[in-house]
Amino acid sequence: MNIDFSSIRVPRQRPRPTDPIEIFRRSAVTDDSINDLWLAQGDALREWDGSRTFNDVAVALNTGAGKTLVGLLIAQSLVNETQRQVVYACSSIQLVEQTAEKATGYGLPVTTYYQREFSNELYAGAEAPCVTTYQALFNGKSRFATDDIAAVIFDDAHTAEHILREQFSLHILRSEMEETYQRIANLFSSYHKSTGLGTSYEEALSGESSRLFWVPPFEVRGNLTELRQILLDAKLGQSINTMFSWEHIRDHEELCCVMISSSAVTLTPPIVPVSTLACFEPNVRRVYLSATLRAPDAFARAFGRKPGLIISPSTPVGECERMILVPSVTESVEDDVYFGKDTIKNKKALILTPSYRRSNTWKDIANIPARQEVPQAVTRFREDAAPNKLILAARYDGIDLPGDTCRVLIIDDLPMGLSPLERFQWELLHMENSFRSTIASRIVQSFGRISRGMSDHGVVIITGRELVGWLQLPRNQSLLPEFLRKQIQLGLALSRQANSPEQLTGFADACLGRMQGWIDFYNDNMQEGFPTPNEAEPDLEKSSTVALAEAEFGEALWKRDFHSAALVLQESLDSGFALSQSTGAWLAFWLGFTLEMTGDNETAGEYYSRSYGNQSNLPRRIYLGVDGSTVTNVQIANVHEQMRIGHPRPSSVAIPKTMISDLDPLKGIGSVPQTEEALRCLGQYLGLKSIRPDKEFNTGPDVLWIAQDEYGICMELKTDKKDNSEYWKRDVSQLHDHIQWVKDNHQLSEIIPIFVGSILPVAQDANPSPDMKIVDLEQFDVLAKKLISALEEAANGTLPLELGDKLEKVMRDRGLLFHDILTSLKMNELQKSHP
Question: Quick one: 33 exposed, middle or buried, by C-beta within 10 A (0-12, 13-18, 19+)?
């Protein structure tokens, strides 16, 4: 049989362009909105092309500035250059489909992968990138883990941190696995009873409380055999809801934080070991696309590294017109939430809240869709007309409602933790200072939900005391893009000068009705210069240092290289405490654990004590035989904890090593900040919960002592006042504000507000409340000396097993229990100066 081979055509491999702009020029674009690359897109592509060999490149472009086209062109360029597989990752299936649709309009071929199916073979043949989800890329059974991946493009990279955490979080949901949940909860019941939290723990398990409990790793380790058997009995590898995270968590249970609430048990690492994932190997190139990549600490926290290059072309594209209203700063507005509801009653509006619990504040005007129903609810809302409303809880990204689909947005209260561990760090450890850039990123994302381009416009109403307070601080504003910062400053000025709620509502109607007066006012003022705060840089540097150290620690811990993990934390501990007391305490805890894992129990005990002494919501390390079980008073137990040296069976006890030097500024020889820290330390050494809210959160009193979770001493330091001075109206107003902060953030039955300083009169125009007092600093110095003497007596010749009983006697005899301290401190009345 004769065969005519001349009719067979063998495809010739033409050279594929690697220049992303050349790829665009050769593409058969069918999208009518694309005529050419915008200037910023071209600038970004050229800069990336010149640095394409960098492993980690961040590209920051405003929302609506065309970053999807930039990302797809970079992806195809890398496919053409490497002739290997390239992944383009999105945060949801909806965005995968949306990106693939855009790629078709751009004339760029792609493969999609979701629901375990590839749409074509282009990715397999290294001809086009694969557009998939972060979840598919990061999960423990990732289809991509064994591929020959040359590069990954992370779209909306700011969303990756939470998704990464979720892939490394094993959730035992009570509603789905009741028996497994109960067995784990019961396993750790005795531990919480031993730390004095038995009642609170039982309340949480019964659903009477929403409190989260963290079972520390040393307690998990002590019950590891039983825990592993419970998890094995649950057959986690066979359930679609647990198999992917179980693949990551398995064999690392004792290295995890075990979080227990009324609805779930969660196992998750303290720091996600991102470097263990194939897409973060050294030979893989990564490009991160986002509108919010301003803060290096947030990037380091998410990806465990610094970008080798940040490309941030200047462009006005995506800078839309916004009228921002802050009703709580308008003098005649009593309730900002009520104002928000009244203003939007006839309008279509999106309402963003930080949690489902906070969403209940708005449930009288709209339904709250369940988490799994959000995509459908958003789709329906896009097509809805006024006055329909949509409430979304803890959703700051992935929702686009541009133009007439929605013109009014309410952002209600400060974004909070999304995962159980993040919630614990924010709500109980008060580590907001460490997460300031994360908060800023979520706020920026929130503003972008209803605005996509320069021609868009809308009204944003800000409600919630915590969010309003956060936005007014210059150091926080400095974390926001300049354009948004100007809009916020303009909105604050507009809201402060409004005469009535009705005038505020009139402002909103002027924007939505496109009144020329508003448009001229907005354009004129946005062109004017606004103050540019620069207060964030020092904290950002500290936070970045800590975030990078945590990433290095997390990787070493997951590999069980405990010596290296401990060394990293020892080198970064001072930076952690410089950032915030709670951050330092968090690092000190994990330093204690890693040292314990190396066998250095004595030093581990010192760091555990330092951790608990600085943040009493961190777990206490209890050792058999020396747990102070005879001590029933929590205050004495806390002092006992700080005096133990050497574990598990220490041979001696002593006063804390730095106690005397820590309290020296109470003699009046230090600056105001040094004196504040000395007062905080005195509270800690007395066994009280002691914090510096103004330093930690930029609001609240200088120092707050809390006893028995019932009583608080709210202190405002005025130790720098001259003898001929007085307590001014602003001083009294400040203390009033601090009292309110304590009421809002702590459930206390009694708050004692005091000025710490010289006994001086109060200005005639000031109006102090009758319970405000003045206490001279010298009295705290006397108290400090009494405490040092008492603890030295308790430690002298005392065996560790006897310390609890000895402390109980000495502290009671010397009047060092909280109520005795209140009686002994001379609290002077505030008296008006003579006119």
Answer: exposed
CA distance 772 to 733: 11
DSSP letter (8 states) at residue 409: E
Task: Read off the amino acid at residue 459.
Answer: V
Tell me whether residue 178 is exposed, middle or buried, using C-beta atoms within 10 angstroms of its C-beta: 0 to 12, 13 to 18, 19 or more: exposed
Token code pair at residue 604: 């581990």
Q: Is the peptide bond before 415 cis (omega within 30 degrees of 0)?
A: no
Cis omega (within 30 of 0) for bond into 481:
no
- pLDDT tens digits along 78-96: 999 999 999 999 988 888 9
Residue 170's DSSP bridge partners are 267
Binning the chain into helix, strand and coil, the percentages to the nearest 5 are 50, 15, 35
Residues in the chain: 835
CB 745 within 8 A of CB 699: no
How many helices (H) and strands (E) are present in the chain, helices listed first? 35, 25
Q: Which of 821, 811, 730 is nearest to 775 (CA)?
A: 821
**Burial of 318 from C-beta contacts in 10 A (0-12 / 13-18 / 19+):** buried
- pLDDT, tens only, 26-81: 988 888 778 888 888 899 999 999 999 999 999 988 776 788 999 999 999 999 99
Q: How far apart are CA 745 and CA 85, in angstroms?
A: 51
How far is Cα 441 from Cα 459, in angstroms, rounded to an integer?
20
Q: Determine the Cα–Cα distance for residues 219 and 475; give it in Å rounded to an integer.
A: 39
Q: 268: closest CA among 285, 283, 255? A: 255
Q: Is 205 exposed, middle or buried (0-12, 13-18, 19+ CB in 10 A)?
A: buried
Residue type at 316 in one-letter notation: P
| Residue 486 to residue 482: CA distance in whole angstroms | 6
| Amino acid letter, residue 575 | S
Global pTM?
0.78
Query: Which of 788, 786, 776, 792 minimizes the C-alpha distance to 821?
Result: 786
Cβ 589 vs Cβ 607: under 8 Å: yes
Nearest to 220 by CA among 260, 247, 180, 248: 260
The pLDDT of residue 532 is 64
- Write the DSSP string, 541-580: HHHHHHHHHHHHHHHHHHTT-HHHHHHHHHHHHHHHHHH-
> Cα torsion at 190, 194, 200, 205 (round to 10°)?
-10
Closest CA to 683 of 638, 734, 738, 627: 638
H or E element at residue 356? helix 356-359
Output the six-digit token pair for 117. 């199916």
d(CA 63, CA 348): 22
Per residue in 508-566, pLDDT (tens digit) is 999 999 999 999 999 989 887 666 665 545 567 788 889 999 999 999 999 999 999 99
Provide the CB-side half-sphere exposure for 188 (13 A, CA).
Answer: 27
